[in-house]
Amino acid sequence: MIRVQKYQDLGRFQNAWLNAHYHFSFSGYHNPERMGHGALRVINDDIVRGGGGFQMHPHRDMEIITYVRKGAISHRDNLGNKGKTEAGNVQVMSAGTGIFHSEHNLENVDTNLYQIWIEPNEEGVKPRWEAREFPKKVGSGLSLLASGLPEHQKSGAIFMHAD
């Protein structure tokens, strides 16, 4: 069943550098009717102010997809990965057995992004991070950005441990 959830009714969090809207229960927002959907656990609509960001923190056994809508977000983790994901592009982090990472907006403008968490189809995998630029399509249509299905890797989708 599809349930319409108005933007103004989403869970919210705001501080000096973050304005977040939560589609499902997350962090200090808890709604027993909004605990996720199947393996989908989190859809957060975040605005990260210039100079702000998430300090180094851990994750385990979660597929975390970040789609940057405007601006850029800079990633750094304990595996030695670092990179900047700009508007229209995607990064995928497979937390697996455990990863520590930070995400910061090092720009002078706000960054708008969606962060999506999906339970993996296999726990305890080797942690990894990948970001990729996706060419802008002309006209209408959808682009497959990330997938756990082998046949989708040929199209350039970023691999993730989820269906």
Structure commentary:
- This protein has one domain (14-134, 142-159): Sandwich (Jelly Rolls), CATH 2.60.120.
- It is 2% helix and 44% strand.
- It contains 1 helix and 13 strands.
- The protein has one helix at 150-153, and strands spanning 11-14, 18-22, 40-48, 53-59, 63-70, 72-77, 82-86, 90-94, 99-104, 111-118, 128-132, 146-147, 158-159.
- α1 (150-153) links the parallel β12 (146-147) and β13 (158-159).
- The longest helix is centred in the C-terminal third of the chain and has 4 residues, at 150-153.
- It is globular, with a radius of gyration of 16 Å.
What is the strand and helix layout of this fold?
Blueprint: E1 11-14, E2 18-22, E3 40-48, E4 53-59, E5 63-70, E6 72-77, E7 82-86, E8 90-94, E9 99-104, E10 111-118, E11 128-132, E12 146-147, H1 150-153, E13 158-159
Parallel strand pairs: 12-13
Antiparallel strand pairs: 1-2, 2-3, 3-10, 4-9, 5-8, 5-10, 6-7, 6-9, 8-11
